[in-house]
Structures are given as C-alpha cells and as structure tokens.
Design a protein that fits this description.
Elements: E1 2-3, E2 6-9, H1 13-23, E3 28-32, H2 40-44, E4 51-54, E5 62-63, H3 71-76, H4 79-88, E6 93-95, E7 100-103, H5 108-119, E8 127-131, E9 136-142, E10 145-150, E11 153-157, E12 160-162, H6 177-184, E13 189-195, E14 199-200, E15 215-222, E16 225-233, E17 237-239, H7 241-247, E18 256-259, H8 268-275, H9 281-286, H10 291-301, H11 312-323, E19 325-327, E20 331-332, H12 334-337, E21 340-345, E22 363-365, E23 373-374, H13 379-398
Parallel strand pairs: 1-11, 2-3, 2-12, 3-8, 12-22
Antiparallel strand pairs: 4-7, 5-23, 6-7, 9-10, 10-11, 13-21, 14-17, 14-20, 15-16, 15-18, 16-17, 18-19
Helix pairs in contact: 1-5, 1-13
C-alpha cells in the first residue's frame, strides 16, 4: 500500500491547485483522477479559452446556505493573485465584459500551468503524483488514516481532499460521488440542483420557441436577483447569459421577469405616438429589438393599428408589460446542460479557513463539491482556486 501525506480525489481545477499548494510546502500529495486526463472541465470552459477568473469577484456573487462562508477563502486568495500566477507562466489573457478574464490562446495553457505548479513541489521537498484513469472503489478511515482502493491498487494518507465536483455535465464524467462520500463520513449535503442552466417553456409560452436563435439584451429577474445581459430564445425555451444567471435562483413555480427595453425612457410609447402617430407598436419595438422579437411581442400585446388611435392608458399598460414580461418555466435542461451545481456539501460541516470537516479530522472538501456556487463569468473558477489554496495551506500546516 502506497502512503502519502494527502490524497486528493479529483484532478480538476480545485484538485490540482490544492495539490500544487500543499506540494510546494513540502507535502507528499497523490491526485487520483477518474478520467483519462486531468482538467476536462477546464478544457471546455469559455469556448475552449477558459474564463479563468473574474476581476469583480466578491462574496455577494455566490449562492450558499451560508452566504458568509466564502468570504474567508476569497479574501485570502483573490482574482489578482490568480492573475499574477497566469502572468508568471507567460499566458496571454484578455478581459471581455463584466470583468471576465480569458486566455488569448487555449484553455490547455491553464491545465499545463497547474501541472507545472505541481511539478515544482520537488524543489520544496514535496511531491505531487497525478494518476489518471483511476476508478475509485472503497474509501475508509481507520486509526487516523484514510485508505482509498482504486482499480490499480491501495493508497493511504492521514488527509483526504474531496475535489470531485458536482453532477453537472455528466457527459464529462461528472457524478454525485462527492456527496456520497461526504454522507459516508456523516457530513450533511444541501440538496443539489442544476445551476447556470437553460430553462424550458410550456403552455402559452411555447409560442416563443418560434423565436429560436433570436437574442436581445434584457434585464432578467427572479426574486431579488437581476442581471442585465443577453437572453436567447431556443427551441426548448430560454437561455443566454441573463437566463443562465437567474436560473441559479429559480425554483419550480417561480416566474422569470424580463425587461425587454431596459434603456427605454418613461412613457416611451407615448413619445413614439407623438413623434409618429401613424406608427405601430411593432415598428416602435423594432427600433430597439430584433424584428422577429418585436413582431411576436406586438402580437402578444394585441394593440393593432396606428399609435395615434390608441388610448394613452393602453400604451402605458403595454410599456409596463414590456418592462416586466412574465414567463413561468416548466423546468430546466437539467444537469446535462448545467454549467455548475447549486447545493453540495454543507458549509456548516466545514471550516471556512481550512475547508476541513469540523467533525472528521483530516477530511477536506473544496470547489464545486461544496455548497458555494458563483455567478456566470469566472466566479466558480475563482472559488475553486481560493478554496483549494485554503485547503492546500492547511494540509501543509497539519503536517
């Protein structure tokens, strides 16, 4: 049986980062990855360019049963810290909208960087061994030692890190293994659900599916959460950044409210009536929205004829509806299309400083496995880096 100082289950963003930090501080770390290669979710992120962090990272951009839990790790390892690491490895990057940072080249550069960081452990007297294609079998804890049986052998260590993510994107090999393992050791799990996921429409809203491929910049709201970004109509319902954002807050039965004209002035339809009495609601909408969307909205509002012949009250009612158009999704496209998972290993079970389980010494949980879920746009990667650094540093101190 091979022995190490720590075993990290999962060779994704959080797992590799944690192993690198602990290894660089003299720990002997083993990373066990089920897939044939590490970092598969990194490789597909950001259209293959990896949206590796967000400059606007702050605790209020995360969902959790305990909204304060993420503060400690995020404050101790910031987006600027990770950006400095990226630049130290000579990786060119660019900022898109809303603080989102991407590689100029390929997401493979981020995976290569993490592996290079793991390799530098030797200089500090530590080691990081990464083993891929390892099917995890029995995991046990006895006498202060964790034992992991895999398809190729048995491994032991006084510390075990759960970094296997959540069940989103199962085609990439994602499972609920992290939750099953946590429950095995008596940790509570907040019921997981798909997040950053397209929503599906039924009933009368099915008519909007005819707009498949049409997008517009809107403000989408669900409860108190509101996001101004693009919304996209699909053959199944609603998608696009604005919808993915509010999907993390959506629960079955909730409405999604859309402001189709967030820049419109008060009483803009009345102004259009005065400026062009022979115009129509459709023509007024088409000045700001794609023609197909303008036509559909005008049809649903059911105000026909010239604006000059329409009562001001009716136009004000139309304005109000366009600023607060209600959809009631009948579901989402599920974990198959979800980018991340809301829920996971309960933060009440973990130390916010070290990510170690309070009641199970030597057991850690990081990244998406934990009940901390960020907004779209690099926030979840930053949580992976920050929680991994917290755990990696704690592993070194424990040694």
């Amino acid at each position: 049986m091979q022995t190490h100082d720590a075993i990290v289950l999962g060779g994704g963003a959080a797992g590799l980062m944690c192993a690198a930090v602990a290894g660089q501080r003299g720990r002997r770390v083993l990373v066990l990855e089920r897939a044939a290669e590490v970092g598969k979710k990194i490789l597909i992120s950001g259209g293959g360019r990896c949206n590796f962090t967000n400059l606007n990272t702050a605790p209020d951009r995360y969902l959790s049963a305990n909204p304060h839990f993420a503060k400690s790790a995020l404050s101790r390892y910031t987006a600027r810290d990770f950006l400095a690491l990226v630049e130290a490895h000579g990786i060119a990057w660019h900022e898109k909208t809303l603080g989102q940072l991407f590689c100029d080249g390929s997401a493979r550069q981020i995976v290569a960087m993490l592996l290079a960081e793991c390799a530098t452990a030797d200089a500090a007297g530590g080691t990081v061994e990464v083993r891929c294609g390892e099917e995890i079998g029995e995991v046990s804890h006895d006498g202060g030692e964790y034992r992991v049986m895999t398809s190729s052998g048995a491994f032991a260590a006084p510390a075990l890190v759960i970094a296997t993510g959540g069940p989103s994107i199962p085609k990439m090999g994602a499972t609920d293994f992290a939750y099953r393992l946590a429950r095995q050791f008596g940790l509570k799990v907040v019921e997981p659900r798909p997040a950053l996921v397209p929503l599906t429409l039924g009933g009368e809203d099915v008519l909007f599916r005819e707009l498949s491929g049409v997008s517009a910049e809107v403000v989408a709201r669900c409860g108190k959460a509101a996001f101004r970004e693009a919304a996209l109509f699909t053959h199944r319902g609603l998608s696009g950044p604005a919808i993915l954002q509010v999907s993390s807050y959506w629960r079955p039965g909730d409405d999604i409210a859309i402001d189709f004209l967030p820049d419109a002035a008060d009483e803009w339809l009345l102004a259009a009536k005065r400026a062009n009495p022979r115009g129509t609601v459709r023509s007024a909408l088409a000045d700001a929205l794609p023609d197909r969307l303008a036509a559909t909205l005008a049809e649903r509002i059911a105000l026909e004829g010239d604006l000059g012949n329409m009562p001001d009250k009716a136009l004000r009612t139309a304005e109000a509806r366009l600023a607060d158009w209600r959809f009631r999704p009948n579901g989402s496209e599920g974990f198959a299309k979800a980018e991340v998972t809301v829920g996971g290993i309960a933060t009440a079970e973990l130390s916010s400083k070290s990510m170690e389980a309070r009641r199970v010494p030597g057991l850690y949980a990081i990244g998406e496995a934990v009940d901390v879920t960020g907004w779209l746009g690099g926030y979840n990667f930053q949580w992976a880096w920050a929680s991994a650094v917290a755990a990696g540093a704690a592993l070194a101190e424990a040694g």
